[in-house]
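hey m, so remember when u said the tokens were messed up on ur end? i reran from scratch. heres the input so u can diff it against urs
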Amino acid sequence: MKTPYHALRVWVRMLWVFCLLPSSVYAQEAKDSIHGDVQHLDAVTVTARRMPAKISSATSVQVFRKEDLKNLGLQNMGDAVKRFAGTNVRDYGGIGGIKTVSVRNLGAAHTAVSYDGVAISNTQAGQIDIGRFSLDNVSTLSLAIGHDDNMLQSARLFASAGVLNIETEKPRFEDGQKRFTQIQMRGGSFGYFTPSLRHWQALGERTRLSVDANYQRADGEYPFELKNGQLITEEKRINTDIESVQGEANLFHTFQDDSELNVKTYYFHSQRGLPGAVILYNKESDERLWDDNFFAQARYKKVFNPQWTLQAQGKYNYSWNKYEDTGAEYVGGKQTDTNRQKEYYLSASVLYQPVKGWSLSLSQDGFINKLHTNGTNSPEPTRYSSLTALNIRYQQNRWKVSGTLVGTYITEEVKAGNTPEDRKRLSPTLSASWQPWEGEQLFLRAMYKNTFRVPTFSDLYYLRVGNTNLKPEKATEYTVGITWSGTPFSFTDFVSLTIDGYYNQVNDKIIAFPSTYVWKMQNYGEVNISGIDVTMATAIPLGRRLNLNVSGNYSWQKALDITNKEAKNYKHQLPYTPEHNGNISATLEMPWVNVGYTVNIVGKRYYLAQNIPANEIDGYNEHTATLWREFDLKRYKFRLQAEIINLTDAQYDIIKYYPMPGRSWRITGTLIF
């Protein structure tokens, strides 16, 4: 057994840096002539057409705003993320089905999910079920491939190949109001029912409170077509029920020196059936899953002066899940697995801007992860991690150049079995953006990024499959692109276009590989991924109070397995990777009613390693139509929205043998007062 001595030294260094940073800038703060007094300015209302998101970033950043998410009739977080170019969302079907996201086929474990600036973790499995996050209180949903322009983010986000960033709404009040309440009722096909409540409260001039809560239930028993050779039968999906409760409370406080403190507590509980694979005529499934997750996080930000800014974050996360399967093959007729994870996390970031054009930031993260399982001889692993990110940016005239170096040190201890070696690595990133002509919103950009993902607890310790000798999975990203925005036509408000070509390499890919008697996790795979992502958006005014907004994206991708030249699947497309996919969305705003329409298009895929006709999954098109209208009732506002999902009743699988729902409907009523 290994002692955590090295990790303790890292933690001491991190704490030392964290303590010294504020003291190093207090002398600068004294020079600030405005300190302590709050400056009140008169409110100004500006009305304008929405312009596209800033496209000068040196990396690919795609953004959905609150109105986009509502108006397009998106059912859940997975549906929203599918509409980002370069993403691959695995969906096992049903309202409660697990949904994970991978960026440009690097794997879900390479994609970080940030919730209000703090990373969400799952050290056991390495991937986040984004389906458990509600869209109702989301202000912006963005996807950064590489990382975005925020230099004060944590080292954990700098270290990831891509970041899905979920930002929730902050309380805002108009006309002297001190409270805001929203009640929402949503119902639909397959027994779907979700009531939710949101309340904002001003607790003083400098303190605001927000509370969000929702309940969801559905039986999920949707019909589908079962094909067995030439025979097609009508069946009904079973064991797809879900019941969940989610709630969070946020406290926002601004101090006398204008520093900010945000505190969040979050709780999620669900119990759901896990619909099994439908093979031949067997559609039975007895698997059940229970989830509990609680976390509390805090973020503090202080701008000392134009040169120095400090941000500190802390988080405690507790998650518990129970998996249960009933069957005669188990002793006692039932198999029950329980897992409990804990994480303790601290992060400190400092931004220094010495002269115009130059910015430097240093982020230091430290976290401890623990896992307890009910299995015999459970290793009870504890992981100590330290991440340091140094970021330097130069921006002058039409150039923006940024470089990042992430240092990682990880050590572990276990109560039983072998302990893996310590992991140490430096991971560089370099990105650049150039505007060829001043005044023209045309930018050329390029990025190189090197990342790696550490084996999960399941990879290392799960029963006899785990392998403590695993090396980290390494990924390298190369991207070049062009972005443009302008008004080439008199009948449009704007047109924006981005085109990115990329080439990724994944080495030491961790896969389950058959050994002498059992399967074993091994560093065996090597993958080359090349592709093109294209996004487009425009807004067209059609008349007084008539506006058309159109957006879309297209991805072409070749993700080839080059592990073994002698293998039958050498240079074959990776499973569940379509070569072509994309979507297009349009919203028509009218005085009487607003209309939204989206089409999601996915090409054929293969569900096994060999690209042969027997392993092919057909492509599909999924159409969604939305109608909504808002009513102003003096003291109240009311919004009514109706949606038809999968309008053409397409029958398709995202994961083979896991049929997705056909046509369904949903109605939402929202009352604001």
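this time it looks ok to me. Confidence is low (pLDDT under 50) at residues 1-49. if urs says something different then somethings off w ur setup not the seq
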